[in-house]
Amino acid sequence: MEKESHIKRVSMRNTENPENIKKELEEALESWFKTSTTKRPAGQRPTSTLAARPNSEIDTGDADDEDLKLIDVMSEKEVNAKIEELLSDMNLNDDKKKPLRDMPMEQKRAMLKMQNKKKGQHDTGSRFNDPEDYYRYLDQHINPEYLQLNKCLNCVESLRVALTNNPVSWVEKFGTIGGLQKLEQVLDTGIRNKDVRLQTECLRCLEKFMNNTTGLKAFFKFSKAHLTVARCLDHEKPTVMLQALKSMCFQFINALLSETEDFEFRMHLRNEIVRNGLYEKLQINMQRPNINRDKAC
């Protein structure tokens, strides 16, 4: 099971203790920019373009030191502006941002230095660093003349991890360059070629893409994607069908609750959902056998 975004756990607890929040945010940044520590032997070529990226052999220490020094000489206004950018990437609401905005200036500088350092470790020249890399690769391999479903599947699996672990700005950039439309095309290709694994991974990617307000709104505006997802509701393919239902149902609930600013009204909606039996249904589903082994379903 893939790890869930660390930021959401930060936003739900320790909101009154800046020290605890700072510690958890450090862990979140670590997860965003985590890279492989395994080096391949000299002369050995990677077995896959989607394999874990090796450590860069270029000495970037000097550049990193320069960036860290720049943070030390930033004015308070510049530091606060950078902190705002960081908080926006973390997809936090204003209530959760307040304790971080109130941190001492030295702690803010330390946060920025850590972010800069991890980002430098992350940018090692891998083929799949940026949203554009995924877009180009998928565009190439769903071309009918060069269709390779196995390569599409590998790329989509990697994309799901990237959408999960990268900051919101990365996800937003993926949407801006047409990533959502390209993902819908890959899902459509999986449906037409009856590739269950590719369909399932595309649906998981859509779920991760919609895990923020910008992605959710982009999906709602793209009506063609709604029809393509609806085509996945095929009882003869229960794995794909349940993934589609799970993704869309929870995004619908998330949209209802997240678009409501008033806390009391959000609680009212939550109670209405629970009152209508969702909690009991979830408990029943958690106790059911695995759908892949339950032939009766």
Automatic annotation (TrEMBL):
Cellular component per GO?
A: actin filament
Region (Disordered) spans which residues? 1-64
Domain named GBD/FH3: residues: 71-297
List the SUPFAM superfamilies hit by this protein, alphabetically. Answer: ARM repeat
Q: Which GO terms describe its biological process?
A: actin filament polymerization
GO MF term list: actin binding; small GTPase binding
One Pfam match, given by its short name, reads Drf_GBD
Gene3D superfamilies (UniProt xref): Formin, diaphanous GTPase-binding domain (1.10.20.40), Leucine-rich Repeat Variant (1.25.10.10)
Record-linked SMART domains: Drf_GBD
Q: Which InterPro entries match?
A: ARM-like, ARM-type_fold, DIA_GBD_sf, Formin_Homology_Diaphanous_sf, GBD/FH3_dom, GTPase-bd
State where composition is biased (Polar residues): 33-50
This chain belongs to which protein, by name? GBD/FH3 domain-containing protein
